[in-house]
């Protein structure tokens, strides 16, 4: 069974999310190592959400409750009393509710800025990180891979033009009231990740020409050359020369000591979680600080085009139908392959040639196709039991079923 615990901008304070994001890298490995009933774990930690996706062994008594406590215990070892705040606010999903939530998250429907584009890559990076750590599982792999496919469908079919906006673009919209001419504003970008690339595109679209980049990892020169901006090697000097500073890095925190007080007004925008800018910077004279919490108050953008939720719902229905139909499809194909193998053994004894064997294998594939399609159709219509009964009546094929709870969606807990 699949399980997900989610703490996000919708239900958890940003300060708590900030602290969770600092310790989330080892959570998946901790869960798999400490709890035998956790078959796999993928942890997604972004600038405004923490989510743990688990595959659980069955049968378990109250599996959702056990998994919830396992995640909270893992967090408590790292964030202490903050785990109690997550316990009170986080949401949990089980069964097909996890698939629905994951597809919606990946498509940007659950983002602070509805339709943001960065979340899709972050979801897939979470899966790759789990692979590297050895904590993923076949069921999680399948769900995350299909989430990427569902996202492509949403972006192809839904109206993303109005709502496909990133946090960086929204932050620049909010900064617009302080900037009369983008071409005259020296801009410093701290960080060279995916948000940095999006931010540069948004700045250049507004007409910004004086854009500089700083990286604590030494990647500024290469990044600057790629995007046609200027690299900076000294952070304090770069901040002193800038009037707009945008941070999106996990490597550095700007403190009051980094900001030279020369009476020039500056706007600092913190897109990082963990925070990239110490809140005390906002108390300095001449400094305005715009962070994720403040951005979130202005993120009530229009919903995605009328059809995005329907596209996600259709993708979830297709995924669950294919999953539920899989045992019947395997049973049909196994029955046909066994019959094929027996006939091929006879033909080989009689000296059959390769063309005859190839023709029979092709025939077996043709015979398997229609029952496989029908199995998915009947599963989607909620009539899979009729299909399985027909298999047993016509061919004498019995379908090996997994526990019902694994195949049927359970409500959110």
Q: What distinguishing features does this structure have?
A:
52% helix; alpha/beta; 4-stranded antiparallel beta sheet; 6-stranded parallel beta sheet; 413 residues; single chain
Notes on the structure:
The chain has 413 residues and is of the alpha/beta class. The chain has 16 helices and ten strands. The strands form two sheets. The protein has a six-stranded parallel beta sheet with strand order 7-6-5-8-9-10, with helices on both faces. A four-stranded antiparallel beta sheet has the order 2-3-1-4, sandwiched between helices. Strand 6 (211-214), helix 10 and strand 7 form a beta-alpha-beta unit. Helix 7 packs across helix 13, helix 13 (308-349) packs parallel to helix 15 (384-395) and helix 14 (354-380) packs antiparallel against helix 15. The longest helix is centred in the last third of the chain and has 42 residues, at 308-349. The radius of gyration is 26 Å and the shape is elongated. Residues 403-413 have low confidence and may be disordered.
Question: Mind sketching the topology for me?
Answer:
Blueprint: E1 2-8, H1 14-21, H2 27-34, E2 38-46, E3 49-56, H3 63-79, H4 82-89, E4 91-94, H5 96-106, H6 118-133, H7 138-157, H8 167-175, E5 187-190, H9 194-206, E6 211-214, H10 220-227, E7 230-232, H11 235-241, E8 244-247, E9 266-270, E10 287-290, H12 292-297, H13 308-349, H14 354-380, H15 384-395, H16 404-407
Parallel strand pairs: 5-6, 5-8, 6-7, 8-9, 9-10
Antiparallel strand pairs: 1-3, 1-4, 2-3
